[in-house]
Amino acid sequence: MQIIDGNAIAESIITELTAHVSGFTKQKPVVAFIRVGEDPASVSYVRKKQKTAERIGIESRLHLLPEDVSKEALFEQIDVLNADTNVNGILVQAPLPAHIDETETFNRVTPEKDVDGFNTLNIGKLCQEDPSGFVACTPAGIVELIGRSNIETEGRHVVVVGRSQIVGKPAALLMMRKGLPGNATVTVCHSRTKDLPSITRKADILIAAIGRANFVTGDMVKEGVAVIDVGINRLADSSKKNGYRLVGDVEFSSVAEKASHITPVPGGVGPMTVAMLMQNTVRAFQAARHE
Amino acid sequence: MQIIDGNAIAESIITELTAHVSGFTKQKPVVAFIRVGEDPASVSYVRKKQKTAERIGIESRLHLLPEDVSKEALFEQIDVLNADTNVNGILVQAPLPAHIDETETFNRVTPEKDVDGFNTLNIGKLCQEDPSGFVACTPAGIVELIGRSNIETEGRHVVVVGRSQIVGKPAALLMMRKGLPGNATVTVCHSRTKDLPSITRKADILIAAIGRANFVTGDMVKEGVAVIDVGINRLADSSKKNGYRLVGDVEFSSVAEKASHITPVPGGVGPMTVAMLMQNTVRAFQAARHE
Lengths: 291, 291
What we know:
The first copy, chain A, is of the alpha/beta class. Chain A folds into 2 domains: 26-110, Leucine Dehydrogenase, chain A, domain 1 (Rossmann fold); 137-271, Rossmann fold. Chain A is built from 10 helices and 11 strands. The first copy, chain A, has a 6-stranded parallel β-sheet with strand order 1-11-8-7-5-6. In chain A, strands 3-2-4 form a 3-stranded parallel β-sheet, with helices on both faces. In chain A, helix 2 crosses helix 10. Chain A binds chain B through residues 103, 119-130, 154-157, 163, 165, 169-170, 172-173, 176-178, 183-190, 192-194, 199, and chain B through 103, 119-130, 154-157, 163, 165, 169-170, 172-173, 176-178, 183-190, 192-194, 199. Strand 6 of chain A pairs antiparallel with strand 6 (185-189) of chain B.
């Protein structure tokens, strides 16, 4: 059994990107972050993304807007960044305050700078297998983990548990696309699926993106399955300083006993999303500069 | 066993649309067709669409361009129709000559008038379950056939054979969406799938969109399956005046013996696509007029 080390794989991607970016002598890629309000998780995510950008040689800019910012003011900020030819990537950190529609906001970002891959046009391109689009960072990270772990996908049965717009569906579309990693037979399950264990037991590769702690247990998988656990759930744990521990959607102990490969939580898919964001930014830069 | 009568279902949709359109007293919906060259199948398809439009009370306009038309001239014609506020829907009949890229052409049509549902933005909206988009006519017709035949989809296992951009993938996304018809567990199979019969035998609903005559046989399905056959294949048949007969991707005789529902070819999915095009046109008209 092999534990897929998301930290190590993300680190090699960051090293590759650093070498790549050092070759851009005239200009460096620029990513702009917009953060609305002071949500502690958002503060921490954006800081992490900025730090990684800095390591790679990507310049980052941070635009802070107050929690009560109007939609118009937020969109004006996005428009300014859309028009700024020095900015290659724009990321509006979710969640946004309730008075601002997230889909509308993500669609305000011009598709060429939508390094988050949330713009409807980029989702359409993913479905059409048009490589000029940006793939959202979590599903892109899942595919990268599978590819770099040399897990064969062609003709194998991938079961995705979860049908969300940002993980389940794009991951399914990526795994069924023509090419590698891909060419898989793909089943998408969700809350309405009947007799879920009978389906997850068919999986050669299981992608769990349900958002329920320890949901997938050892009796639900077959021997030799490769497991990608996308869940990040907090479980109360008084032995921890902060009062909780992070667990995935997969019960690690029982599933690991049968798996050929498994991602841990934390340290699996999580670190990959930041690496994929950086990869998208470098791609946006190259597309804009025709490098 | 119930044969799903696509002609009859399409006819009831046309009757409903006719009643609906008769209520538009000030203006009528307008659909514009662009046909390039004289491909006999295209001539016949466009004529059929125009006839159906006329029956419903939708005005149709036909723009004929020569086979050797430049991309620029074709796009100029599309732009004129995009800008014409009296035109609600625009359909560029495929196939296009080899020197013109189809995806680029379909994306030239403004999404609000893309009644064919081929624009990348509308495909993205389908994936995002945004009902403001247009769904391509064949997958929309499949869902309508299932819904109007009262075939339950919630929690049932839909197996789609074929992963094309225009049928397999959108049909899969529609069947897994939140809502009805939908909420199904969905498996997408294709040419790289291993042991296809073991998967098709799990299907409560089988959607066959492979493009190979009589490919799905009785031994590949379980008792009680509902079968939607999207294939239209020509088989040489000297007993026919024109030298061929049309068959689906499903071997009708052997599969019908086990099926609860099955679409015939011709007379199944085929007639639905024209009806769905008309429905999209009426929707485009209503969205433009805010009726």
